[in-house]
Amino acid sequence: MTKHHTNKSGHSAAAIGVAVGASILLGGYSATARDKPLIADHTTTAIDKIPPAAIAKARETFKIAYGHTSHGSQIVSGMEALKKSNPDLYAFGRQDAPGSLSFWDTTPGGDLGNPDRTTWADRTRELLKGKGSDRNVIVWSWCGQAGTASEAQMQTYLDLMAGLEKEFPKVTFIYMTGHLDGSGKNGNLNQRNEQIRAFCRKNNKVLFDFADIESYDPDGKVNFMELNADDGCSYRKEGARGNWADEWLAANPNHKFALPGSAAHSRPINAALKGQAFWHLLARLAGWDGSPAR
Questions:
Q1: Which is higher by pLDDT, 18 or 218?
Q2: 207 φ, ψ to 5°?
Q3: 179: closest CA among 218, 237, 229?
Q4: What structural domains and CATH numbers belong to the chain?
Q5: Residues 73-127: pLDDT tens digits?
């Protein structure tokens, strides 16, 4: 397996909530047997810690539908770079090819705020009752609307997700935070993201913490969100502007990341981190307990 940079934050991937399975490595998959939250964030971006067998199990197990617009494509760009680096291990695509993760990209259309804050739920229901009745994982991402949402509007998102989970108990619904917008710790975006996180922790949900991943460079020592970082990885410190992605790459020219050629609104390394975290989350959902590959 191609080796990629290991997160140095000191956090263990095993520290996130264990979803299902009693095995040390792989257990059975169930969308309903979760008694702890399962969260992918900046501590779960080290792709080389995932046993290949866990990735293979995820490829075989899941049929994903991912609704998103431009910001959400960062995850897919990172996954594409991984697939290019190791086509067999990280295979995915729209077709249900043997050995490949079935991944319906930009399906359903739109995102969590486009064309409004509720249509995504109707489109999900239509998909799962129609041509996507075989889908067992649903993912939706935000564009910019998480940062402009009121507390009540964000609660609507959470209520709709929880309602869909009850309606389709055999499907795993992955919650997501909104991308950074430079408003910092006290900004509305972070308050709404904290609302999402608190709901997911309290109710044992599956969360892809989009904002937390882009708040840290691969070393994981500085929370750039608190330095008013935005989705392009730029931040402000003591009146000066910096970019954690550019700075980290300049300081680590021999890194082992599989970088995409570009990332919408951002830097390629941000997309790489998100692609790796997404595979980590799928491996955990498939029953991997988070123990590092040996």
A1: 218
A2: -130, 130
A3: 229
A4: 13-285 (3.40.50)
A5: 999 999 999 999 999 999 999 988 899 999 999 999 999 999 999 999 999 999 9
Task: Kindly state the average pLDDT of the residues 285-293.
Answer: 92
Which residues, at least 6 apart from 78, have a Cβ–Cβ distance to it below 8 Å? Answer: 260, 263, 271, 272, 273, 274, 275, 276, 278
Task: Output the DSSP codes for 103-163.
Answer: EEET-SSSBTTBS-SSHHHHHHHHHHHTTTTT--EEEE--SSTTTT--HHHHHHHHHHHHH
HSE at residue 20, side-chain half, CA atoms within 13 A, is 16
Listing DSSP states for 49-109 in one string gives GS-HHHHHHHHHH-EEEEE--TTTHHHHHHHHHHHHH-TTTT-EESS--TTSEEEEET-SS
CB-CB neighbours of 136 under 10 Å: 19
User: For residues 172, 99, 85 and 49, what is the CA-based torsion angle, rounded to 10 degrees?
Assistant: 50
Counting residues of the chain whose pLDDT is more than 70, the rounded percentage is 89
Q: What pLDDT is attached to residue 167?
A: 98
Cα–Cα distance, 119 to 197 (Å, whole number): 22
By 3-state DSSP, what share of the chain in percent is helix, strand and coil, each rounded to 5?
A: 35, 15, 50
H-helix segments, 142-219: 151-167, 188-202, 210-213
Alpha-carbon gap, residue 50 to 63, rounded angstroms: 20
Q: Would you state the structure tokens that stand for residue 284, as one six-digit string?
A: 């955990």
The C-alpha atoms of residue 46 and residue 31 are separated, in whole angstroms, by 25
Report the alpha-carbon angle 242-248-253, nearest 5. Answer: 135
* Dist. CA 180–CA 277, nearest whole Å: 17
Give the pTM. Answer: 0.90
Helix (H, G, I), strand (E, B) or coil at 201: helix
